[in-house]
Amino acid sequence: DAAAERAYVEALFPLAAIVTPNLHEAGVLLGREVRDVPAMRAAARDLAALGARAVLVKGGGLAGDAVDVLFDGERTVDLPAPRVDTANTHGTGCTLSAAICARLALGEPLVEAVRAAKAYLTEGLRRSYAVGRGRGVVHHLLGLEFLGPVGLVVVVEPGQLQPLDQQRQGPPLDQQGADRDRTAEQGGRHA
User: Fold this and answer.
1) 58 catalytically annotated
2) What is the pTM of this model?
3) Which is the catalytic residue, given 20, 58, 60, 124?
4) Of 27-31, 158-162, 166-170, 173-177, which has the strongest mean pLDDT?
């Protein structure tokens, strides 16, 4: 829809810290095909010229390594990663943009935030899993620990929960909770 495409460019681009179109989306917004890395570099610069502060053209649809191209308003950076052989790719674009957003919110510079988000997505694809029918999903919880049943620390892996309380270092979980509660009551921050 041409009106929606104009709205993206006119209303959203100026507000966004970064826009993250895939090859098809970049092509639609520019009115030309984007099929290789040189075309991705040009597309990133041209999309920025339309008002975006930074542009990451995602090349997941290309053959070979998964190369994304970032234009930060001054320089163009190619971001290659090994292609992960999986059909579980549902939500990769949303996952990547959310991870970039989270890194930027933590104060990371743009290029480092994008690199870290891409590394997170690549590892999430390596550990992806099927859910129901169709394309499966990226493993979004990799590397996260949380309190599970009866106070055990668990790491989320597809299809299993693995207790890690034997491998933990530091005070017991119930002591950590008490320390955190006491620190909060005193108005301080728990480290």
Assistant:
1) yes
2) 0.75
3) 58
4) 27-31
Q: Which of 27, 51, 91, 177 is catalytic?
A: 91
DSSP 10: I
Residue among 27, 51, 76, 89 flagged as catalytic: 89
**What are the two backbone dihedrals, phi and then psi, of residue 61, each rounded to the nearest 5 degrees?**
-85, -5
Place of tokens 């309380």: 165
- Which listed residue (61, 64, 73, 94) is catalytic? 94
- 11-25, 72-86, 96-110, 127-141 — which is least confidently predicted? 127-141
Name residue, tokens 């179109």.
21
Q: Does the annotation mark 91 as catalytic?
A: yes
CA distances from 76 to 27, 62, 73, 98 (A): 18, 18, 8, 21
Higher per-residue confidence, 140 vs 169: 140
